[in-house]
Amino acid sequence: MRPLSDSAPPLTPDGATAQSWAREELRDPAYAAAHPTAFDRFARSVQEFFLHLFDAGAPGDSGRWLAVIACVVLVVLLIVAVVLWGRPRARRRAAAGDEPSLFGDVEHRTAAQLRKAAAAAADRADWDTAVILRQRALARGLAERGLLDTPPGTTVHGFARSAAVLLPDLRDELDAAATAFDDVRYLRLPGTAERYARVAHVDDAAASRTVAAEATT
């Protein structure tokens, strides 16, 4: 048999070498991923509790009552979990849903207030702000008339398509105003007097129209 060279690792390592190899092997991330999480340990303890409860060999009615009590305890724990963790999240969602927003930003002002603020921005040549506020005034104005809601998450082009159903003769103008808003708000193109005039025109036109839904009320 050919002898092993002096440089080959020993087939049977001594204690120190074995410990070193074990430490290196346990550094592998696969071992860390295999460790049970806190939730795993909690679920295991609950499982063991119920297994122990039903394997206790309680006779007749005693066993049935223990099962009922265990179920009641489990339901109470679930209710407590919902109260502690579910309700705060529900409150946060409800609070977020109560915030009036328009095209990605919280907006509390009325249509008239938005138009006034847009005009003030235009007077100082702040065309970016003027375009954005006048488009929001357009949406808020239709909402105040009870014609078209703009729930959170509605895009400006989604609004334009819905508004065009109410105001079909303004379809192109509504789309152009939405494009002007997107150009300034999201594409970071500079606002201009022309873009502002485009949005202000369709807002004025929409405000002056009597929609069929209003005429029948």
Number of helices: 10
Assembly state of the chains shown: single chain
Helical content stands at: 55-70%
Largest sheet at a glance?
A: 2 strands, antiparallel
Number of domains: 2
Transmembrane segments: 65-85
Protein name: Protein-glutamine gamma-glutamyltransferase-like C-terminal domain-containing protein
Keywords: Membrane, Transmembrane, Transmembrane helix
Organism: Microbacterium mangrovi
How is this structure best described in words?
The protein is mainly alpha-helical and 217 residues long. The chain folds into 2 domains: 38-98; 105-209, no CATH class. The protein has 10 helices and 2 strands; from the N terminus they run ααααββαααααα. It has helices at residues 15-26, 29-34, 38-54, 60-98, 111-123, 127-144, 156-166, 171-185, 193-208, 212-215; strands at 101-102, 105-106. A two-stranded antiparallel ribbon has the order 1-2. Strand 1 (101-102) and strand 2 form a beta hairpin. Helix 5 runs antiparallel to helix 6. The radius of gyration is 34 Å and the shape is elongated. Pfam families: DUF4129 (PF13559).
Keywords:
two-stranded antiparallel sheet; single chain; 10 helices; mainly alpha; 217 residues; 2 strands
Record the SSE blueprint:
Elements: H1 15-26, H2 29-34, H3 38-54, H4 60-98, E1 101-102, E2 105-106, H5 111-123, H6 127-144, H7 156-166, H8 171-185, H9 193-208, H10 212-215
Antiparallel strand pairs: 1-2
